[in-house]
Amino acid sequence: MPSNKNALTRIVLLDKLLADRYHAYSIHDMTLCLERELPKYGQVGGVSKRCVEKDIEYLEYNFPIPIELERYTVDAQSAATDKVYKKRCLRYSDPTFSIFKGKLTAEEKGILTTALATIGSFDGLDGFGWLDDLNKRLGLVEQQPVIQLSKNLLENKTLMAEAFSAIQAHAVVKLQYKRFDASHMCEVIISPYLLKEYNQRWYLIGAAYDTGRVLNFALDRLVSIAVLPGYEYRQAPADLLERYEDIVGITYYEGAQLYKIVFWVSDKSAPYVATKPLHGSQIRYKGEREAALRQQYQAPPQGALFSIACMENYELIRELCSYGGELKVLSPQPIIDAVTSRIKEMATLYGL
Question: Per-residue pLDDT tens for 161-188?
Fold first, then answer.
């Protein structure tokens, strides 16, 4: 039995790896993981493969409670090579087993109750039944959610839960999807990062396994999501969330310019734009600054002036055009040109 702090820490870390059902860990993988994690607990000097093998042997044959391990193989591929090989791995035979299962305090139960009730707006989706199951197993008192999240119920409702679980587990997945404008189905392997809603449609955002390029996929175009436990997960870019702060919608173009967009809105639509901003950076101008901008851009005397700071994409131009004659872009010229082009296309469509 481990008799020092180092050995006990290794057992705790190995327990997490053996209980993980979304990744496939070989002895080599476990050794690398322990070498990376042990210094965080003040332990230096590294750990050998033989040491990990002895720890596994102790767990399997000498631990105070019975532990059953299973050995299996998966198709694996390193991010640094295209060669696929069979990797020999091991894990707990029982997917629900873990050596360490701590009890919740009353305060922790209260926090969990509120959190589960808040995300309970997903409870109509197949695959999120674990919310109810978790409530029952933890002995939490059911309560009405205090926040109702918008959701678009998908034809294949399990995809939301599968994507959510893969993101939580940092698991590489293979997607099968079909674009609206394509006649055939495509496949892509990604490291999933984020589920994002825009305009009542859900998107899965992740990095392509081969190129690392961040892509988005509409969940209603996905056919299936399959976890690839033998593949190495690519960590999300540090600025992932910041990218979506700089755009309207979901389409992000690498290297796109950030514009300060000044626009005029009529008196009729100004209250709507003021209370439902086009973008989080929206500013409404008043006083001397408003007067100066009206003179600079020769804006009408009525109405209101606003500005946003974001990158150009399809959703931005569509949003600006959605107000018709109630909104006019005053600056910069590239955005004016994009809106003008869209208006001309509409005029041609209507024979004007």
Answer: 888 889 988 999 999 998 877 778 899 9
- What's the sign of the alpha-carbon dihedral 226, 228, 234, 235? positive
Three-class SS of residue 76?
strand
The upper half-sphere exposure of residue 319, i.e. CA atoms within 13 Å in the direction of its Cβ, equals 22
Q: Which amino acid is at 112?
A: L
**Contact partners, residue 74, CB within 8 Å, separation at least 6:** 24, 86, 87, 89, 229, 230
Which pLDDT tens digit goes with each residue over 65-121?
889 999 999 988 866 677 888 999 999 998 888 887 656 666 666 666 666 665 555
Query: In 3-state terms, what secondary structure has residue 286?
Result: coil
Cα–Cα distance, 337 to 184 (Å, whole number): 35
**Per CATH, the architecture of 157-235 is what?**
Roll (2.30)
Q: Which CATH class is domain 258-349?
A: alpha beta
